[in-house]
Amino acid sequence: MPPAYVEALGSVAAVLTTFCWIPQAVKVIRTRETRAISLTTQVALSVGVVLWLLYGILHVSWPLIGANAVTLVLLIVILAMKLRHG
Amino acid sequence: MPPAYVEALGSVAAVLTTFCWIPQAVKVIRTRETRAISLTTQVALSVGVVLWLLYGILHVSWPLIGANAVTLVLLIVILAMKLRHG
């Protein structure tokens, strides 16, 4: 596969795994229903994304910084709703 | 920060964002409760992880392949339970 195609594939992957959190954030805000969501998963995922963000900052990698900053904002919304509504 | 520390940070990030899915998978298997989980998020995330896995295969990057293969298995469990229990 030509290298440009491979990098395009990576970009689509990054967009999906970043913006996929929008529907989940919208859903918990709208319904206030969070029972099925694992708190442990949300905390571990959020801490992991903070570390990926630091890793991106230390490597001065703008794709890593951008993707993880957006993901983190959405995960914080979901985590806050989980902590509030149980 | 010494490069070895930066890479260790990245490894901890990868472990967290991979294995964080275990508690969510266990929770949905135990409770059969999936209402609060967004189907759109789970599908987009799973497709994104499939693309990251392909990207890892095309780059012959074993950390990417390993992390995304494990994540995908756990996400498929959660997605299957979501499709079954709504």
Automatic annotation (TrEMBL), chains A, B:
Q: Name one Pfam family in it.
A: PQ-loop
Where does the record place it?
Membrane
Q: Does the keyword Transmembrane helix apply?
A: yes
Annotated TM spans: 6-24, 36-55, 61-81
Membrane topology note: Multi-pass membrane protein
> Transmembrane helix: is it a keyword of this entry?
yes
Q: Any idea which UniProt keywords this protein has? A: Membrane, Transmembrane, Transmembrane helix
What InterPro entries does its record include? Answer: PQ-loop_rpt, SemiSWEET
Name the UniProt record assigns to this protein? SemiSWEET transporter
Q: Source taxonomy lineage?
A: Bacteria, Pseudomonadati, Pseudomonadota, Alphaproteobacteria, Hyphomicrobiales
